[in-house]
Known about the structure:
Elements: E1 53-54, E2 57-58, H1 59-72, H2 76-86, H3 93-104, H4 107-115, H5 139-156, H6 160-171, H7 178-186, H8 193-200, H9 209-218, H10 231-245, E3 272-277, E4 284-289, E5 295-300, E6 305-309, E7 315-319, E8 326-331, E9 337-342, E10 347-351, E11 357-360, E12 368-373, E13 379-384, E14 391-395, E15 400-403, E16 412-415, E17 421-425, E18 430-435, E19 440-446, E20 451-456, E21 462-467, E22 471-476, E23 481-487, E24 498-501, E25 507-510, E26 516-521, E27 527-532, E28 538-543, E29 550-555, E30 560-564
Amino acid sequence: MFADGDRTTASNGTSRPYANGKSHTRPPASGTINGTHKTSALNGSSKTRQPDTYFGHNREEVTRILIQALSDMGYHSAAESVGQESGFELESPTVAAFRNAILEGDWNEAEMLLFGATTPGDRVNEGGNGLVLADGADRNLMRFWIRQQKFLELLEQRETGRALTVLRTELTPLYQDTQKLHFLSSLLMCQKTEDLKSKAEWDGVRGDSRHILLSQLSKCISPSVMLPEHRLATLLRQVKASQIGGCLWHTSAATPSLYSDHMCDQRLFPTETVIELDEHDDQVWQVVFSHDGTKMASCGKGKQVIIWEVPSFKPIHYLGDHDHGVGNVAWSWDDSMLVTCCWDRHARLWDVNTGLCKKKLERFQEPVTSCVWATDNQSFVTGALDKHHSLVQWNLNGEKIYDWSSTHRVEDLAISPDGHWLVASNAGNHIYVYNFINRELEYQMDLQVRLTSITISQNSRHLLVNHNNGVAQLIDLVLREPVQSYAGFTGGQWMIRSSFGGANESFVISGSEDGSINIWHKASAHLVEKLSGHIPGCNAVSWSPTDPCLFASCGDDGKIKMYVTPFH
């Protein structure tokens, strides 16, 4: 339900009932408000004043982060000891009470703490101003999120009447987004709890929904008041990401050690051709590894698709029955099935274990160009040059589940690993970005140049688009804007496939009309390698998803080449 929701159970959503041993009561007016420093001395003794900084860092910030990290790791006694020794608390009683109110579903209490309201018998807290928010945060929007959770939980409990009252009297006055309110209203029609959770993208009160809500709310509260969740882990992850991002030859799948600065050895970068496969009798247009890295499929101008064993690179199956060339293959997420997209205007579903054709889809009016699998592994989407049925979802029985009835042709498809984005490129300049969950078109972009291929990163954030002018472009799917470009290869009128690759997808790799293989450092766009590949052209490349020192290429010479590190 939130645009940037984090489903990881957070320290801000800890299952511990109370923070720092505080009871679930409102703090007295004379107590520390949103503060974190203890003014009273321990056991009546004074402490030697420590410097205000720790190697240039704010001592209080460092100490609070350490207290949180110790609690995260389960060292609660140590965290309490550090708090007592330092005089700093992780958070004030007000914040602890707000946390507990959200996790326990005490929505009225949560709102009163948020706004600093009063009830009979309670004192005004936060000076009557409520929790201190981060810059730009909207208190009413936070209240809307709280009431939205309340509304969803009532629906889950089948208390439709009360839910309707919340929608009309509590949510509608707060929010002017008619489309959002109409969506919430449509949830009233869900007959089953499973339908509600699926449509709302919400996992219920027994799931992580309250933790996710608290995480979202915490981002709006001043970090000086409510420390961002897992702050030390976040900082360490940023340090590692920065070091990996600065490593031009990153080939290690292992996470970098915190004990020393990270840098990979250039000599370990895969540049050596270890084997050439020449089983195809004509041009090879695509080669792609299975998700577990134990198999590989290749296709092209010939009528056969070959499935290879990795790392022996011996053919396992020859998938025939294609009347013309095969332009695209797609592995199911469990690698048990394969879809082949053929220029004979058919798509075929294959059993990878037996090599038998499970289903031959009905004939399209134009060639089938591409396919992607839904993340549930129970359906797939085909793209075709057929304007009337260019984008269609099918079940495993070859029956249509959904036809987008798109008027644009589809030359290539990509789906995000999180199942949210479905992206199609036409046989021109446009990409079409769909929300695959509700099947709605989110937006489209005119990139002003003819496109040849698209692929989505493993983190589901970035789209890599190949242009026929010799430039590959990285587009942020959320921000809807280009963030990096990679130049230096030769484009043309035919499809050239590029890909992410290496450890942590640190590289972008692409074939080229001149036969070369170009590898760029993803973050900096620095060209780290330009290898001789195929003559006359290199059509596609694929990096092993499990071995950062292995990738494959294929070309018009009918060969597939495997590249490894010289020390592989």
